[in-house]
Design a protein that fits this description.
The chain is mostly helical. It is 48% helix and 9% strand. The protein is built from 14 helices and 15 strands. The chain has helices at 13-18, 38-56, 60-69, 74-83, 85-91, 143-155, 159-162, 178-184, 187-203, 253-266, 330-374, 382-406, 413-445, 456-488; strands at residues 33-36, 96-97, 101-102, 114-116, 123-125, 131-133, 140-142, 208-210, 219-222, 230-232, 238-240, 277-279, 286-288, 295-297, 303-305. It has a 3-stranded antiparallel β-sheet. The chain has a two-stranded antiparallel ribbon with strand order 2-3. Strands 4-5 form a two-stranded antiparallel sheet. Helix 4 (74-83) crosses helix 5 (85-91), helix 12 packs antiparallel against helix 13 (413-445) and helix 12 (382-406) runs parallel beside helix 14 (456-488). The longest helix has 45 residues, at 330-374. It starts with 12 loop residues before the first helix and ends in a 14-residue tail after the last helix.
Length: 502
C-alpha cells in the first residue's frame, strides 16, 4: 500500500454531502449533560430536602442533616432510616423526648426561670428573647455567644465543622440545624455557610462536577452511562467530564494520563522545543511565529513550514511523519521520536489558543468593524465565526492526534502509515482554512480598507471569498470528523485496505 502516490477514496463528493458542518465535530447532536448555575443548584438541594422530609415525615432541618450524613444519596438515606431509625437519629444528633418526638430547635423552659449562658456566664430569664436553647433543650446560650460560636465554626472550622454543627456544650451531641444557623448567624457567615452547603452537594454527588475553568461557578450534571464525556460550559470552557482535562477526543482519559506522565519525565530533554523562534532555512535569520497557521514567510521572502522547514506547499502529507535516521543510537531515537510528537502537540496547542483569542476578538469587535466599514449585513459575516470555531476545534483534535500517534505500537506499520495519511490530509485542509481566515480575510475585509460592497463588482468578490471560506470550513470539518471516527475505531479500516482503492 502506497499512501503517498495513491488516493484513498474516503472523501468523495457523495460522502461530503452526507455530513454537513452542523453535524461536524464542532457540534453536539444530543447533549448528555446539563449546565447548572447557582439558582439551579439551590433548587436541586431544596427538592432533595423536601423529598426526604415528605417520605419520612421529619422536619427539613433533620432531612438536610440526614442527606449530609449519607452524601446526598436519597435512596441510601431512606434505606438506613428504615433499617435502623434509632441509630440514624443518634448519628445525626437528632435527640428525643421519651425517645419518640423530635424536640423543636428553640423550645424554652416551661417556667420563666433564671438561667446562665454556658459561654459568657451572663444570667438571663429563660423566656428572654436573648437566650436560645439548642435542640437538646438543656443548654442555654445567649444570642451574642451563638453568633460567635457559629461564626468561628464557619470561618475557622470550614465545611467539616459548620455543616455538622452540634450544641456548644462539649458534652452534648444535639444537632444545630440550618434554620437555627440562618436565624442566628451574621449575613456574611450565612453566605459562606450556604457556599459550603452547595459545594458539598456538588462534590459528593457522582453525577455532578464543577467546571474546572478558573472563576467559573457553573456545575455540570452528567448523564451517567453516556460514552461521550465532552462538555462545553456556558463560560466556553470545553473539558472532559470524566478526567477534567480539556476535551481530548479522539484519545481516551488513560492515554491522556500516560501522555502527561511522559511529558513530565521527558521535560528535561525537550526544553529546546519550547522556544518560540527558529532559523529561516533560506537566510538563517531567526524568525518568530506570531500567528496560528504553520505557513511562515521570512523577511527574505522565503515561505516555509514551521514544523518541517520544507518549502511551503510541498510538505502536505509528509510533514506529520516521523522518519528515523539509521546512524542515531536507540536512546537518541527514542528522545528524537518523542520530541517530534511533542513539538507538534505543543505547536498545535499554542495555535489553538491563538485561534481562540482571534475568535473572541472577532465576536467582540471584528464583525461589527467589518460591518461598519463595508456596509455588509452582520448575518452575511457569520461564516467568519463558523470558520474560526472550526479552526479552534480542529486544532484541538490535531493536537491530541499527535499523542495518539506517539502511542501507536512501532510494529503496527500498516496502522501507522494509515494514521499518518489520514492525519496529513486533515492537517493540510486545516492549514488552508487557517491561512484563509487569518491572512486572506484581511485582504478582503482588513480594517485599513474601506470598500463599498454595495457596488456589484466589489460585492461579487466578497461573495466569492465568502463561498470559498464556507466550502473550506465544511470540507475541513468533514476531514476531521472522518479522522476522529477512524481513530476511535482503532484504525480497523486498515485491515480491509487491500480491497479499498488506494
Amino acid at each position: 500500500m502506497d499512501y503517498d502516490h495513491e488516493i484513498y477514496d474516503m472523501y468523495s463528493d457523495e460522502e461530503e454531502e452526507d455530513i454537513s458542518i452542523d453535524e461536524s465535530i464542532v457540534s453536539h447532536k444530543q447533549k448528555n449533560y446539563k449546565i447548572l448555575k447557582d439558582s439551579d443548584i439551590r433548587q436541586l438541594v431544596k427538592e432533595d430536602i423536601s423529598k426526604i422530609s415528605t417520605i419520612l415525615s421529619i422536619p427539613e432541618d433533620v432531612s438536610l442533616a440526614l442527606l449530609r450524613r449519607y452524601n446526598w444519596k436519597i435512596d441510601r438515606a431512606n434505606e438506613e432510616w428504615f433499617a435502623n431509625e434509632q441509630e440514624v437519629r443518634k448519628s445525626i444528633g437528632m435527640l428525643f423526648d421519651n425517645n419518640i418526638n423530635y424536640v423543636p430547635k428553640t423550645k424554652k423552659a416551661n417556667n420563666n426561670i433564671l438561667v446562665t449562658c454556658g459561654i459568657c456566664f451572663e444570667e438571663y430569664y429563660s423566656m428572654d428573647d436573648n437566650i436560645v436553647f439548642a435542640t437538646c433543650n438543656k443548654h442555654p446560650f445567649c444570642k451574642v455567644c451563638w453568633e460567635c460560636y457559629i461564626s468561628v465554626s464557619i470561618n475557622d472550622g470550614g465545611p467539616n465543622k459548620c455543616l455538622v454543627l452540634r450544641c456548644p456544650d462539649p458534652s452534648c451531641e444535639a444537632m444545630v440545624g440550618e434554620s437555627m444557623i440562618v436565624e442566628l448567624a451574621l449575613e456574611k457567615d450565612k453566605l459562606k455557610y450556604y457556599d459550603y452547603l452547595f459545594r458539598s452537594y456538588i462534590e459528593e454527588n457522582k453525577k455532578i462536577k464543577w467546571c474546572p475553568s478558573p472563576g467559573c461557578e457553573c456545575a455540570i450534571e452528567f448523564e451517567v452511562g453516556s460514552e461521550n464525556y465532552s462538555v462545553i460550559c456556558d463560560c466556553s470552557n470545553g473539558f472532559c467530564w470524566n478526567c477534567l482535562e480539556e476535551i481530548h477526543r479522539p484519545i481516551d482519559c488513560d492515554m491522556i494520563a500516560k501522555w502527561k506522565s511522559i511529558n513530565q519525565e521527558e521535560s528535561s530533554n525537550t526544553n529546546w522545543i519550547l522556544a518560540f523562534t527558529k532559523k529561516c532555512p533560506n537566510c538563517d535569520k531567526s524568525i518568530e511565529k506570531n500567528m496560528g497557521c504553520m505557513h511562515m514567510t521570512c523577511r527574505c521572502g522565503h515561505e516555509f513550514c514551521w514544523l518541517c522547514f520544507t518549502k511551503w506547499g510541498t510538505c502536505f502529507g509528509r510533514c506529520n511523519r516521523y522518519e528515523e535516521k539509521k546512524e542515531i543510537t536507540e536512546a537518541r531515537k527514542n528522545i528524537q521520536r518523542y520530541t517530534h510528537y511533542f513539538e507538534r502537540w505543543l505547536s498545535n496547542g499554542k495555535s489553538k489558543e491563538k485561534a481562540l483569542n482571534d475568535l473572541k476578538k472577532m465576536k467582540d469587535e471584528g464583525l461589527k468593524q467589518f460591518r461598519d466599514n463595508h456596509s455588509i449585513l452582520e448575518k452575511e459575516l457569520e461564516f467568519i465565526i463558523e470558520a474560526w470555531e472550526q479552526i479552534v476545534e480542529c486544532r484541538r483534535v490535531l493536537k491530541w492526534t499527535y499523542a495518539y500517534g506517539f502511542f501507536l505500537p512501532k510494529e503496527e506499520v500498516a496502522k501507522t502509515r494509515f494514521f499518518q495519511y489520514l492525519q496529513g490530509e486533515a492537517q493540510a485542509g486545516l492549514e488552508r482554512l487557517h491561512h484563509c481566515a487569518e491572512k486572506e480575510l484581511m485582504d478582503h475585509l482588513g480594517s485599513n480598507k474601506v470598500l463599498d460592497y454595495t457596488e456589484e463588482g466589489s460585492y461579487k468578490k466578497f461573495a466569492n471569498f465568502r463561498s470559498k471560506v464556507i466550502d473550506l470550513t465544511k470540507i475541513t470539518g468533514n476531514y476531521f470528523e472522518k479522522l476522529v471516527m477512524a481513530l476511535e475505531n482503532g484504525l480497523k479500516d486498515v485491515n480491509n485496505s487491500s480491497t479499498r482503492n488506494f
